[in-house]
Design brief:
Strand 2, helix 5 and strand 3 form a beta-alpha-beta unit. The strands form four sheets. A five-stranded parallel beta sheet has the order 3-2-4-5-6, with helices on both faces. Strands 7-8-9-11-10 form a five-stranded mixed beta sheet, sandwiched between helices. Strands 14-16-17-19-18 form a five-stranded mixed beta barrel. The protein is built from 22 helices and 19 strands. It is α/β, with parallel strands linked by helices and 567 residues long.
């Protein structure tokens, strides 16, 4: 698929000043200036994240009320239930909160609850509150959910139970009647960093709890590995405090990880040191698979296990769930693509809406993302859920999916989500009408540019700019993630040397020349570019820097992300 290349522009005076201050190549300082790093001081804070970059938890609105309510529970020997979502952010949040509470309260008074994805759906559930009521819990702490659960919090209150909400999702104007709401995005919250994930908010809560009880930092810092996994999996900005939390959490993962994380690293053959990329592609899918295919409670049990052997038992279950998830994902994606390819009208639409009653509810969101890889447009995948059709929607950058669904609400029973992703429920007989309305709304409102994927380029580089020093400095920009992705470079007017080859009819091993310098390059799943390579014409390439290790020998290589003829 053809991409739009958007090359970042940087103030050349700032680039030169930073290059002089740090004594680095202007190409590298151009990358940094493009990320808002313009002085020696900001560069030092960026390259050396530490605990001093964490903000005071007491700045968060309602923190004093939340801590006071927990201390009252301990004093009165009340039972506390930790309620969390079934994804990585939710299960890691529950594990963190549950373990800390067990240290400061009688563990027999603490339990946790994860809703079943198929039976209860996302967020705080009536079944969960009924469980709390039947088991005499006085306080429910929701983590990574609850900010929109107005009626359910009222229901809990009517049954004699208080709520503390720890959430990071965007609040509505009316908030639930909880004892305390910890959410940096709520109006009137002075907490300086707004982009924490759910586990990040829970971490700030236990930090304040430990400070109130005069406990050592180690009591909460021990959970930084869980926070890092949640940040990586929840795709929140890798900036500010998130970056510091992730940097320190990765350090713990590589030195002394949680038993559950260690077990998953072993089962997935994850080579140390782990990076954010390896967490996103190996650890996160296995944790998420528990909630997608079965019951996410076992993910929490793995994270809170007292021994490695116990954690490994649960990790094996997650590993098996992930195998099932991959099979379901693959077969449904194949079927969905065949549906589009067999329908000329659908191929030419600006949106995709597909429905099959037998598709697995736990993977429809993943399938929607897969379809966007080939048909770059807002996509909805629906399946049967009881007597209703329900499913997941994914957008393309720049298009507000939630607003589009709101415009189609006459055909929906319920919907929720945000700019980039959403879920919805509707009557099966209304799927076709909804599909036509959604296509109408997208066609009328989407900017045509958003239907072509954009590749953001950090800097133009000559082959002479690329060396091991550049590679090492770029690697120190880890952890990578949204708003701090691995730098993409562009080199212009390069030529094939004639030694390039096609690998397994899918990938390309390229040997490209610019002037007298030749680089080995790898281009995964880019066999369609082979005729362009063989044409002999000048090329522009977009790539990241990579290291190729073979028999102990380390060589720089370029990992190609796009190729086009020189313009």
């Amino acid at each position: 698929m053809e991409k739009r290349w958007k090359i970042k522009q940087a103030d050349e005076q700032k680039v030169q000043a930073l290059s002089d201050a740090l004594r680095i190549h202007p190409m590298l300082s151009r990358i940094l200036v493009g990320r808002g790093i313009e002085s020696f001081e900001t560069a030092k804070a960026y390259f050396r994240p530490d605990i001093s970059q964490m903000h005071d938890p007491w700045l968060m609105k309602d923190m004093d009320l939340a801590v006071k309510r927990i201390l009252h529970s301990i004093e009165q020997k009340e039972k506390i239930l930790v309620f969390g979502d079934y994804d990585v952010d939710g299960t890691s949040s529950v594990a963190l909160m549950y373990q800390l509470l067990c240290k400061i309260h009688d563990p027999s008074y603490i339990d946790f609850y994860i809703p079943h994805r198929q039976r209860e759906g996302y967020g705080v559930s009536k079944a969960g509150i009924d469980f709390a009521k039947e088991n005499a819990f006085s306080l429910i702490i929701s983590v990574d959910c609850g900010i929109k659960s107005i009626h359910l919090v009222d229901y809990a209150k009517a049954n004699g139970m208080d709520f503390i909400i720890c959430d990071h999702h965007l609040p509505d104007t009316i908030l639930p009647s909880a004892v305390a709401i910890l959410n940096p995005k709520q109006t009137g919250c002075l907490y300086p960093y707004k982009e924490l994930c759910g586990c990040g908010v829970a971490f700030k809560f236990i930090t304040a709890l430990c400070e109130a009880l005069s406990l050592s930092q180690e009591m909460y810092l021990i959970y930084l590995d869980l926070v890092a996994i949640a940040i990586a999996a929840d795709i929140v900005p890798m900036t500010g405090e998130n970056r510091a939390l992730c940097f320190l959490g990765l350090k713990k993962i590589n030195e002394n990880p949680n038993h559950g994380i260690r077990a998953l690293m072993t089962l997935s053959s994850l080579v140390s040191p782990a990076s954010i990329t390896s967490l996103v592609f190996t650890i996160a899918p296995r944790v998420n698979a528990a909630g997608r295919m079965d019951d996410a409670r076992k993910a929490v049990l793995m994270f809170v296990a007292d021994s490695y052997d116990e954690a490994l038992l649960y990790a094996n279950l997650l590993h098996a769930d992930n195998t099932d998830r991959r099979e379901a994902d693959s077969s449904i994606t194949e079927e969905a693509l065949a549906m589009i390819e067999g329908d000329e009208i659908m191929q030419n639409r600006k949106s995709t809406v597909l429905y099959k009653s037998h598709w697995h509810k736990g993977v429809v969101g993943i399938v929607a993302s897969r379809l966007i890889e080939k048909y770059y447009r807002p996509t909805i995948v629906l399946t049967q859920s009881g007597e209703f059709a329900s499913g997941s929607a994914r957008s393309v950058p720049g298009f507000n999916l939630y607003e589009a669904l709101h415009a189609c609400r006459e055909w929906l029973i319920g919907y929720g989500g945000h700019f980039a992703a959403a879920g919805m429920t509707l009557a099966p007989e209304n799927v076709e009408k909804f599909s036509l309305k959604f296509e109408e709304v997208v066609s009328e409102t989407i900017d045509p540019r958003f239907l072509v994927p954009e590749l953001e380029v950090d800097a133009i580089a000559g082959f002479s700019d690329i060396d091991f020093q550049a590679y090492r400095i770029i690697e120190q920009m880890e952890p990578f993630g949204p708003e701090n992705y691995k730098p993409v470079l562009v080199s212009q007017i390069v030529y094939d040397t004639g030694y390039s080859k096609l690998l397994k009819e899918k990938h390309l091993r390229l040997f490209l020349r610019q002037g007298e310098i030749i680089f080995s390059c790898i281009a995964f799943n880019m066999a369609d570019k082979w005729p362009l390579i063989q044409s002999g014409q000048p090329l522009d390439i977009a790539y990241t820097l990579d290291l190729n290790e073979w028999n102990g020998d380390k060589k720089l290589q370029l990992k190609i992300v796009d190729i086009r003829e020189h313009r």
